[in-house]
Amino acid sequence: MEVFEERRRLREGVIRIAKNWADSLKFRATVILIGSYARGDFNLWSDVDILLISEFTGNPLERLKAIDYPPGFEVIPLTINELTRLIRRRDPLAVEASKIGIYLRDDLDVRRILECLVSIR
């Protein structure tokens, strides 16, 4: 039982760090934790997968250069339109966000948008 408790504490600590980072962003954004930390099957080598949805311009590499994020984070910067296209194509990333994603911040009401898109599929 002690192992399970330690894993729970580790996961909660990572979620807390991710939430603090999300809250520190100085622009409107939706931040969704996905991947192994959202599922709970993380390991020592897992990174922290984050979908960052905002009103971006430029390509994804330019977007990442403009964002300061913690070490070990794998941030995927998307616009709402890009996320919508992924949902319509049933892209695994978007499906995972809609099913198990943990919303750390939702300024853009993406949760409602995802629920609507997924329900009509």
Q: According to CATH, what is the topology?
A: Beta Polymerase, domain 2
**Alpha-carbon distance between the termini?**
40 Å
Order of the strands making up the biggest sheet: 3-2-1-4
Spatial extent as radius of gyration: 15 Å
Instruction: Return the CATH architecture.
Output: 2-Layer Sandwich
Shape: globular
Oligomer: single chain
How would you characterize the largest beta sheet? 4 strands, mixed
Give the tally of structural domains: 1
In terms of structural class, how would the helical and strand content be classed?
A: alpha+beta
Helix content: 40-55%
Q: Counting H and I runs of at least 4 residues, what is the number of helices?
A: 6
Q: What proportion strand?
A: 15-25%
Descriptive notes:
The protein has one domain: 2-Layer Sandwich (Beta Polymerase, domain 2). 50% of the residues lie in helices and 20% in strands. It has six helices and four strands. The chain has helices at residues 2-24, 36-39, 60-65, 80-88, 92-100, 110-119; strands at 29-34, 48-54, 73-78, 102-106. Strands 3-2-1-4 form a four-stranded mixed beta sheet, sandwiched between helices. Helix 4 (80-88) crosses helix 5 (92-100) and helix 4 (80-88) runs parallel beside helix 6 (110-119). The radius of gyration is 15 Å and the shape is globular.
